[in-house]
Amino acid sequence: MQLAIGELPREDRSLLVAQSRTKRFLDVVLAAFALIVLLPLLVLIALAVMIDSGWPPLYSQMRTGFEGREFRMWKFRTMVRNAEQMRADLLLLNEAPFPTFKIRNDPRVTRIGRFLRMSSADELPQLWNVLVGDMSLVGPRPLFTQEANALGPAARLRFQARPGVTCVWQLSNRHSQQSTFDDWLAKDVAYIETWSLWRDLVLIVKTFGAVVRMTGR
Fold it and tell me: Cα–Cα distance between 62 and 143 in angstroms, integer?
């Protein structure tokens, strides 16, 4: 986590730096542990994707993260291989707040992809992004580059934190039809401004609960 610490009193700066380093340490330890423990499951998921819809089992997207830097985010592929080419024909069905794009019953999603999305298992490869420092376990979800470019100056505060595998908005009203992109940004900014290690741990526990209940998109 990188906040505007230069304006804080020396005591608060020292505490924030120490917490930031602890956050990164926990990210590395937990991501490495999870990758080792989940390796057999990751292999099985990759095989299931290939049997269901062919090669490749993984899918990568360019996203904008910490300090506006681009990185390649990894996921298990949950859609048909020509999904990007089909997107233009489905824009009118978008249910997510602009400029994001999401359809609840997206016709591009494969059979195994639906299960992976419900269980959020398609996000597991992002543990690698956490391990190498592109992401954190908790933080604002990374936007596509074109989405990030549409943000105004005030919303760019979200780039002062590493993007997360999970976030406040993702656990609250991401399926709400009343949710807007401004609501999403407001939750991201509030998370950054009130960030603490304890809150991160609470969000991780809530995420685990959501995975168990299979309330993914």
Answer: 9
